[in-house]
Amino acid sequence: MLSNRYRLKKQEIKALKYVRSNSRNVLCIGDLHEPFCLDKYLDFCIEQKERFFITDVIFIGDIIDNHYSSYHETDADGLGGADELELAISRISRWYKAFPNATVILGNHDRMCMRKAQTSSIPSKWIRTYKEVLEVPKWNFVERLELDGVQYIHGEGGTARTKCRADMMNTVQGHLHTQAYCEHYVGKRFRVFGMQVGCGIDHDSYAMAYAKYGKKPAIGVGVILNNGQIPINLLMPL
């Protein structure tokens, strides 16, 4: 956050922020899996937005968990479909208020209901859009986004270190909850990086019981600063 120890006027602070952010600075928020996201994760993301003079916000996918409609076994004591969805919408509204203009990369959990529709042979024309269902009219939902020579994907196809080398392109992704890193690969003619951004999931929630005895999740975000030139992982204090 910009310090006002010099007692700058409001318009002077605004001008200084503009000068400092005269390049694209991206905040990449990890998998939320609402309504099973840590409450403090939102505050952490807001802090990084102010700290790094963020110009663009990207959710890397799986903003919603859809546990009730999973193709795998669900918790018999968990919320029903309507209750889980309404709670997720309510919690996502906090994110929408904090980041009203954002791009959302579609993740495998986001697509769950679309997949169920396909399983039931329901044409896509019958299905409402993500922004309609989740009540986030200004968010843009896409499969993939490219900015400043960096591709942002959810990450079902493997790790960031593998994907960036396969595509020979700077790559930022989520999906793998236990990983948060950035690795650079330098060749004769090319230099690329692969970043895993971590996530914001509540590991103790019933929806994450499948990973109860696995590695703990890496709670964090990524920032990609100066027009895609400086990728940084930021892990949340726990």
Written account of the structure:
It is a single chain. This protein is of the alpha/beta class. The chain has a domain at 23-150 and 199-235: Purple Acid Phosphatase, chain A, domain 2. 26% of the residues lie in helices and 21% in strands. It has 6 helices and 11 strands. The chain has a 6-stranded mixed beta sheet, covered by helices on one side. Strands 5-6-7-9-8 form a 5-stranded mixed beta sheet, with helices on one face. Strand 10 (220-225) and strand 11 form a beta hairpin. The radius of gyration is 19 Å and the shape is globular. The mean pLDDT is 90.
| Main sheet characteristics | 6 strands, mixed
Helix tally equals: 6
Assigned CATH architecture of the domain at 23-150 and 199-235: 4-Layer Sandwich
- The neighbouring-strand order within the major sheet is 4-3-2-1-10-11
Helix-and-strand structural type: alpha/beta
Helix content: 25-40%
Low-confidence spans: none
Instruction: Give the tally of β-strands.
Output: 11
**What would the principal axes of the Cα set say about the shape?**
globular
Named CATH topology of the domain at 23-150 and 199-235? Purple Acid Phosphatase, chain A, domain 2
What is the CATH class name of the domain at 23-150 and 199-235? Alpha Beta
Beta-strand proportion? 15-25%
Average residue pLDDT: 90
Ends apart, CA distance between termini: 21 Å
Radius of gyration: 19 Å
